[in-house]
Amino acid sequence: GAPVHDPAVPGSLHVRAARVLDANWTGTSTVPSRGLYPHQWSWDSAFIAIGLRHISPLRAQTELETLLDAQWADGRIPHIVFNPSVPFDAYFPSPDFWRSSTAGRAAGAPRTVQTSGIVQPPVHALAAWLVHLADPGLSLARGFLARVYPHLAAWHRYLLHRRDLGGGGLASVVHPWEQGMDNSPAWDAPLSRITPAPARSFRRADLAHGAPEDRPTDLDYGRYVRLATEYRDGGYADGTDKGAARRASVEGGGGRRVGGFAVEDPAFNALLIASEHALARIAQELGAPGTARHARAERLTEALIDRLWDPVEGMFFCRDVYGGETRESGALGRDQRFGSSALGSERRSPTGALVPERTVSGLIPLLLPTLPRDITTALVGTLRGPHFSLGDAARLVPSYDLLGEAFDPHRYWRGPAWFNTGWLLERGLRLHGEHADADALREALLETAGTSDFAEYVDPYTGEACGAVGFGWTAALTLDLLH
Ligand code: 9WN
């Protein structure tokens, strides 16, 4: 490639990205950022492994194995695996909030390592397959795929069986941190029904590292804390797990609805589908037929379209599973904007309401190989259109509708562009033959990664760095785009 990208040239993008990953490596895994996020995060590790495989396939395999070592017996992969040598006050919520080894006992939390009790998007099987492909010889010699396969299968089983809270075949998230786009405007309506925990009942650690105007608000945090506390106090039992809910229920009633937040998210489910296809390939590589898994991925794709696709808007939307039950939903009124689209008519369906906010999550299903052609064409049109402006005003795809009422170019997941979502869309564009757009997005991602010093996220118009710099997945996905 160009000298600026050359791994052999000191100061090249490749060398700088590799240096970030070296600096964030702890010996068994990679932190997203030394200051802001000093532990191991689930989907960060998956993206990081995808980049690490280009500089050390062994480290990439170890990254995923370390995460899987902290898997719970019920199959969930926790969103944080805590590093015991980091002081508790370095990050909130810390292990003494989650209390995984006690509160999570019924759900099978590990005894030796402290974790959170919620999950993050299932990018792991996709990552494991890509890591294997980087060095099949090493993978075979270490038995990598054979070792990770049962863990990944249990993880998908957990999501498909314990998290189908809407009953339509898709997985629900029960906390905004699970979907990974913490303060997305898509959560405003479902979160409005949650009573925030009092501000004095917790102490945020993030504001010591990030500018307050770039981070979620205190009101958001009050609600995050309330939801996580209730989930913990219910023994991390899920609504569909009636036995565990009964054992752990503070109210004594079995099968009660756990928590007040359940959302079917397009990106979360698209990543599950992509990972299910990857798991099928892994099964085939191990000598088993992958056909059942490919078929399941197909059924999930149909459920995704059936439940979350809006043909008028040309994108996918979140389904608020408990939405439409009360008249207090924040999404009311804003529905008018969507006129005759499916959003209007479905709002009060018995399995919830679509949330009329356009977020980047609703475009990420573009990475699925078997979407019908009319849907991929519509998604590409929406990406290029005024709400996301690919190849025009915004060089990188914003996390939220540029014309949306809640748009803020610096506030975390309410506008800034992120590199993991950019990477997923680049892959989707290329997969569906949109090479010119994919090339332009790739160039913009690489250039902005370099000029922002591998920022956590950037202003979608100017590329100005926000949040942490030297961010793990930004460096890792830069390496992947360079290869
Ligand atoms: C809460 C680590 C994580 C990412 C998430 C991002 C942010 C945490 C936080 O950082 O969330 O999990 O403290 O804000 O939103 O996507 O995995 O990088």
TrEMBL record:
InterPro entries the record matches: 6-hairpin_glycosidase_sf, 6hp_glycosidase-like_sf, Glycoside_hydrolase_63, MGH1-like_GH
Keywords on record: Glycosidase, Hydrolase
Pfam families for the chain: MGH1-like_GH
SUPFAM superfamilies per UniProt: Six-hairpin glycosidases
Key word Hydrolase present: yes
Region (Disordered): 329-351
Protein origin, superkingdom: Bacteria
Location of the Mannosylglycerate hydrolase MGH1-like glycoside hydrolase domain: 37-474
Keyword Transit peptide: no
Family membership noted in the UniProt record: Belongs to the glycosyl hydrolase 63 family.
Official protein name in the record: Mannosylglycerate hydrolase MGH1-like glycoside hydrolase domain-containing protein
Biological source species: Streptomyces cynarae
